[in-house]
Design brief:
InterPro entries: Isoprenoid_synthase_dom_sf, Polyprenyl_synt, Polyprenyl_synt_CS. The chain is mainly alpha-helical and 333 residues long. It has 17 helices and 2 strands. It has one domain: Orthogonal Bundle (Farnesyl Diphosphate Synthase), CATH 1.10.600.10. Helix 5 runs parallel beside helix 8.
């Protein structure tokens, strides 16, 4: 079941509740992705922005700002900033991963070329920093600049860790915090900061975003081995075929005997995969309880996200954020 197929969709309820603000965010994105001198920039950006997506990260910024009682204009700038950073990283990721499809459509690097994707991504990062500066908050600039650096760091770490059997759960967590959770936690934290919420509440919002992002990625990695292809848009075992050492594999490798380790060395480290290897991998994952252990980890992070909000004031948005944490893991519960 995909996020868009569940009966109760907290992100859609959030989008409906924040529709006016989200409209302003979309208008600002459209205005700032324009380029007087390089028409390819809005072409490439519009292709990706127009592909849909749930706009979850900017929604989180709008939601947390409203939850903390913010009444100024700059939550819109921050939400657009978060979306620009996210879109820039997608453009760069598709080049790095040599992807041909995203959200069911051809990727920008396929339709144009790698150079255009990288350079337009750079442009969007620059636009994001312009938007941050307009808020007049050095602290916001610090949070989002750190998140941008952490994202890049996580992607580079993944390059070296993805096919190295020495990669353990702590390194995996570092990668996930970089590639996924850093932008979630920045998106939720800056909402509290711009609203001048007290420090305990700002920390709680950061912790919520961090745990939510980690749960989100672990679920994604788990569904690669036991998801419904029609629902996820991915073939079962894509990560295995791409030799990505995600959490289920890390758990299985940690429990492997000599013969099993030789199998992982051949298929993941050396990339010498043969017919039937995916079935063997799935059998080893099940034999060592790696899939169930991964599921439990995702559920634990979702619970951590909910627990982080405990001391925040009761509010319709708080309820939806709690529901969102449950919703992220609903596909594996």
């Amino acid at each position: 079941m995909s996020l868009d197929q569940a009966a109760h969709k907290p992100h859609e309820a959030l989008a409906a509740l924040l529709a006016d603000d989200m409209g302003r965010v979309n208008d600002l994105i459209a205005a700032r992705m324009a380029s007087e001198h390089a028409p390819r920039i809005p072409e490439v950006t519009a292709h990706l922005v127009g592909a849909g997506g749930k706009r979850l990260r900017p929604l989180l910024t709008l939601a947390t700002a409203q939850l903390c009682g913010y009444e100024g204009p700059y939550h819109v700038h921050l939400a657009a900033t978060v979306e620009f950073i996210h879109t820039a990283t997608l453009l760069h990721d598709d080049v790095v991963d040599e992807s041909a499809q995203r959200r069911g459509r051809p990727t920008a690097n396929l339709l144009w070329d790698n150079k255009s994707s990288v350079l337009v991504g750079d442009y969007l990062f620059s636009r994001a920093f312009q938007l941050m500066v307009e808020t007049g908050s050095l602290r916001v600039l610090d949070i989002l600049a750190n998140a941008s650096a952490t994202i890049a760091e996580g992607e580079v770490l993944q390059l070296t860790a993805a096919q190295d059997l020495a990669t353990d759960e702590s390194i995996y967590l570092q990668v996930v915090r970089g590639k996924t959770a850093a932008l979630f936690s920045a998106a939720t934290e800056v909402g509290g900061v711009i609203a001048r919420a007290d420090e305990a509440h700002v920390k709680a919002l950061f912790d919520y975003g961090d745990a939510l992002g980690i749960a989100f990625q672990i679920v994604d990695d788990l569904l690669d081995y036991q998801g419904d292809t029609a629902a996820t848009g991915k073939n079962v075992g894509d990560d295995f075929r791409e030799r990505k050492l995600t959490l289920p594999l890390i758990k299985a490798v940690a429990k492997a005997d000599t013969e099993e380790r030789a199998f992982w060395v051949r298929t993941i480290e050396k990339g010498k995969q043969e017919d039937g290897d995916l079935e063997t991998a799935l059998e080893l994952l099940n034999r060592h309880g790696a899939l169930e252990d991964t599921r439990q980890d995702a559920l634990k992070w979702a619970q951590d996200a909910k627990d982080a909000l405990a001391d925040l004031p009761d509010h319709e948005i708080k309820t939806l954020l709690i529901d969102l944490a449950d919703y992220v893991v609903a596909r594996i519960s």
